[in-house]
Amino acid sequence: MNYVSTRDKSLRMTAAQAIVRGLAPDGGLMTPEAFLHLPHGALEQLKDMSYQQRAVYVMQSFLQDFSSAELSAFAAAAYGNGKFSHPDVAPVRPVDGNTWCLELWHGPTCAFKDMALQMLPHLLTASLTKTAEDKTVCILVATSGDTGKAALEGFRDVERTRILVFYPKDGVSAIQELQMVTQEGGNVGVCSVVGNFDDAQTGVKKLFSDRALAEELAGRGYFLSSANSINWGRVLPQVVYYVSAYCDLLKSGAIQAGQQVNVCVPTGNFGNILAGYYARKMGVPIKTLLCASNANNVLTDFLHTGVYDRNRAFYNTMSPSMDILISSNLERMLFEMTGGDDAAVRDYMGRLNTAGRYQVSDEVKEKLDGVFASGCCDDRETAQVIGEVWKEKGYLIDPHTAVAFGVLDKYRKGTGDNTPALVVSTASPFKFCSSVLPALGVTQLAQGTGILDQLTQVTGVEAPAPLAGLKDRKVRFQIVTEKEHMVDQVLEMLR
């Protein structure tokens, strides 16, 4: 199977080439030429498999450059060896008789990004060999909080790789920042950017298109690639957990084979929910994908109106990983909904770059309406949901997951659609103690990492080991840069 650019279908790559390069030369996103439908009875077959086995089954159709033996070894390394604290890797937890939570935060950094970023380094290093690439790859990452630490941990001391993470100064939680700036490894770098996530993300995209930088780095023996979800090697492993979750619902008897479920996903960059769409396209019986936004509700407005408009106020919220106004992976969805019309996608992206807005055709809007619903929650509503879910369900959730619970509740009340629903839980609540504790009624907050113990004292829930261990870690990185000078940090790291 080949991969094509969303902006020029004549630009084709193998899976290995797409993973190595991350972003198409024309700025488009590499996307599979076709999606293979799961064979009849596949989900019944998969329900009795381990998460690792399910991963191989799903991924092998899209990674034909790789043998089953290679993918099995990668899955064992990524999801085995105690990397994840739960034996099911991505367990499905019942919340009430009609709602389940897909917990994606049992990995080494306690966020859903681990699900892909424990796999990507294996795919990338193998792809370097398959493409006969002789240079060292430098992974550039823009993060709104969770991707950065997950990428740093995944690529730490991986041969023939360097990784540099940019995050918005004052735009991530204190625990998220501490996770990044204390990162160990000889090939890692971390730098905060004055501004918001979109500033960091736009800056990274400019670095990828900087020909002078590319030539300079090539002379030093490096080339740039990405671990953000613009890389197909990030998106594909995310498809797996939607397939796996449905299989777990089947296995537990919560649903019957072929029964539809709704899936509610908190998302800012559209990568997580895009993976859910791809699972649906492959044949997982997902009825409606609910796109849950915080106060930065550019995606909610887009799905309601067909107009994408980033020209609006930006809010720093208690769910910072969703504080995004430019949702990169939406480009792949536009490619899908236009029937692979690269010229249309190119036009939409051009309008977004020059005017900050675009409007899709009536046909595209109708197709979106057939798959997606959307809603949003502000910080007040999010805090209320955290408190209610804890009080009524005895279930502790982070702000991003709370946004999803809130949107699902609004959707059910507004539509009467009580289809069994899966809420995607993207992070441990202990990554956001300073928001979770006030939502539980606590007014005096402990300082530093002591806040982790405070949340345990209030709830009786133990902090995940990777976060509890932060109190013994030393800060390594304290660099702050303007977005215009991000290139200097790249050149400094790759001297």
How is this fold's topology laid out?
Layout: E1 3-5, E2 8-13, H1 15-21, E3 30-32, H2 42-46, H3 51-60, H4 68-79, E4 92-96, E5 99-103, H5 114-117, H6 120-130, E6 136-142, H7 146-155, E7 161-168, H8 174-181, E8 188-193, H9 197-208, H10 211-220, E9 222-226, H11 232-252, E10 261-266, H12 271-282, E11 286-293, H13 298-305, E12 307-309, H14 330-337, H15 342-354, E13 357-359, H16 362-369, E14 372-376, H17 379-393, H18 399-415, E15 421-425, H19 433-439, H20 450-459, H21 465-468, E16 480-481, H22 486-493
Parallel strand pairs: 5-15, 6-7, 6-9, 7-8, 8-16, 10-11, 10-15, 11-14
Antiparallel strand pairs: 1-2, 1-3, 4-5, 12-13
Describe the structure.
There is one protein chain. The longest helix is centred in the middle third of the chain and has 21 residues. The two termini are 37 Å apart. It is built from 22 helices and 16 strands. It has a domain of 226 residues: 3-Layer(aba) Sandwich (Rossmann fold), CATH 3.40.50. The protein is 44% helix and 16% strand. The protein is an alpha/beta fold. It has a 6-stranded mixed β-sheet with strand order 4-5-15-10-11-14, with helices on both faces. It has a 5-stranded parallel β-sheet with strand order 9-6-7-8-16, sandwiched between helices. The chain has a 3-stranded antiparallel β-sheet with strand order 2-1-3. The protein is globular, with a radius of gyration of 21 Å.
